[in-house]
């Protein structure tokens, strides 16, 4: 069974930093572009960041651009999201997701419906 496992969530003060990671099986990770989404209480799930299969391209939501950085290690089948200058409005459950795709296929980095495998989520709380 394909599975994504997030780790690294927690409580951090405003202005602080946190790193969340996602681990996948080789079967999933090697053929997937990867993304991070988040969902705050009472709100819809929203796109945060995404990275291509090779790691050469990435996209960010405007709300996190310049503060968050997505990366992937294809040898270790892991993806990470470094979050800096965190704000209370960043509080949410963060989900990693895999979008399986051929090398030359069109990529939809911000559309949750295009992602095939999802993790269970990890809570990130930004509060003083």
Q: How large is the share of residues in beta strands?
A: over 45%
Number of helices: 1
Low-confidence stretches: none
Q: What structural category arises from helix and sheet content?
A: mainly beta
Please tell me what the overall shape is. globular
- Main sheet attributes: strand count, strand direction, barrel closure: 7 strands, mixed
Distance between the termini: 39 Å
Helix content: under 10%
User: N-to-C SSE series?
Assistant: EEEHEEEEEEEE
Rg measurement, Å: 14 Å
Give a count of the beta strands, DSSP E runs of length 2 or more: 11
* Overall pLDDT: 95
Provide structural commentary.
The chain is mainly beta and 128 residues long. It is built from one helix and eleven strands. It has one helix at 26-29; strands at 4-7, 10-12, 18-24, 32-39, 46-51, 58-60, 68-73, 78-83, 92-100, 117-118, 122-126. Strands 2, 4, 5, 6, 9, 10 and 11 form a seven-stranded mixed beta sheet that branches. A four-stranded antiparallel beta sheet has the order 1-3-8-7. The longest helix has 4 residues, at 26-29. 30% of the residues are buried. The mean pLDDT is 95.
Topology overview:
Layout (H helix, E strand, L loop, with lengths): L3 E4 L2 E3 L5 E7 L1 H4 L2 E8 L6 E6 L6 E3 L7 E6 L4 E6 L8 E9 L16 E2 L3 E5 L2
Parallel strand pairs: 2-11
Antiparallel strand pairs: 1-3, 3-8, 4-5, 4-9, 5-6, 7-8, 9-10, 9-11
Briefly characterize the structure:
By secondary structure, the chain is mainly β. Helices cover 3% and strands 46% of the residues.
């Amino acid at each position: 069974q394909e599975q994504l496992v997030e780790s690294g969530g927690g409580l951090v003060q405003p202005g602080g930093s946190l790193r969340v990671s996602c681990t996948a099986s080789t079967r999933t990770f090697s053929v997937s572009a990867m993304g991070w989404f988040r969902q705050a209480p009472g709100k819809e799930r929203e796109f945060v960041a995404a990275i291509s299969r090779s790691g050469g391209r990435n996209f960010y939501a405007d709300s996190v651009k310049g503060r968050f950085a997505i990366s992937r290690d294809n040898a270790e089948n892991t993806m990470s999201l470094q979050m800096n200058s965190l704000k209370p409005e960043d509080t949410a459950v963060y989900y990693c997701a895999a979008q399986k795709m051929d090398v030359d296929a069109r990529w939809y980095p911000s559309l949750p419906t295009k992602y095939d495998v999802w993790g269970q989520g990890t809570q990130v709380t930004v509060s003083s």
